[in-house]
Each structure stands twice: as C-alpha cells, then as structure tokens.
Specification:
It is a single chain. The protein has one domain. It is built from 4 helices and 6 strands. Helix 2 packs antiparallel against helix 4.
C-alpha cells in the first residue's frame, strides 16, 4: 500500500520519514515517491494492505544500482494480541526501461536475484538500509 496512505498516525508517519531519511543518507540524489501505486481499481486489487511501499527515483540510470528507480516494500504483521505492527520482511526491486532488473528480499537469504545486480558497495548499502528498517519497526518488539 502507498506509504502516504499508511501514514495514518504520528508513529507511522515518523517511521516513514525515518525510512526516507535512511535511504537518502545512502543515496542522496534520489527523489522520493510516497505513492508509487496508481489508485485505479486494477492496481488496487494487487496492492498488499499490509505493506508500506515507497518508490525512489534517480535522476538517470544508476550504474552502481543497475536501475533507474527502486520500489521498497516493507511487509507488516500485526499480532491480534499486540497494539503495534512489526516488519516481517523487506523487498527492494530495481527497475529501468526494460522492467525489473533485480530484487533483494530479507526473507530467505538476503540475496539479489535478477538479470543485473548492484555493485558490491551499493548492495552493501541496500542490505544495511533493510536492516535499519527492520530494527526501526521491531524495536517495540524487543522492549
């Protein structure tokens, strides 16, 4: 679901802002899109209501990331007995004019899969970014 639509309270709005700042600290030249999904009925049918989705667009094609834009999807879960939602995984996919070039998921090994892959430095930055997201959302769980 679009991040802008998930920012229903101060806590979630703050976490979304923190995610944007975390990403921009690693990749400062990006433009952020808090509404990467269109609101037409066909698209809305495919959108996961238990995710926070954010688009990041580069001014051109990023050679280090082998993409022009990234879609970050944070998968959420809320235990019916608990008041907060926690992150159970993060997916990041890189796209260019040919479509999806690669995907990184924190579920199942943290590996990049796809036709192209980011260079080692950018791959490390993306893994760090995903770890930070999981820590941000799950700090309430550890307390």
């Amino acid at each position: 679901m679009n991040a802008a639509e998930q920012a229903k309270n101060f806590e979630f709005a703050s976490k979304i802002a923190a995610i944007v700042n975390l990403f921009k600290s690693q990749f400062p030249d990006v433009r952020v899109d808090l509404k990467p999904w269109m609101n037409d009925p066909d698209t809305l049918e495919l959108v996961d209501p238990d995710s926070i989705d954010i688009g990041f667009h580069f001014p051109g094609r990023s050679r280090s990331l082998e993409s022009r834009c990234l879609l970050v999807q944070i998968r959420l879960y809320q235990d019916p007995l608990e008041a907060y939602r926690r992150a159970i995984g993060v997916e990041v996919a890189g796209y260019d004019h040919r479509g999806e070039q690669w995907k990184l998921t924190t579920v199942g090994g943290w590996r990049f899969i796809g036709a192209a892959q980011p260079n080692n430095d950018s791959a490390g930055k993306l893994r760090y970014f995903c770890r930070q997201i999981l820590e941000l959302f799950n700090q309430d769980v550890a307390a």
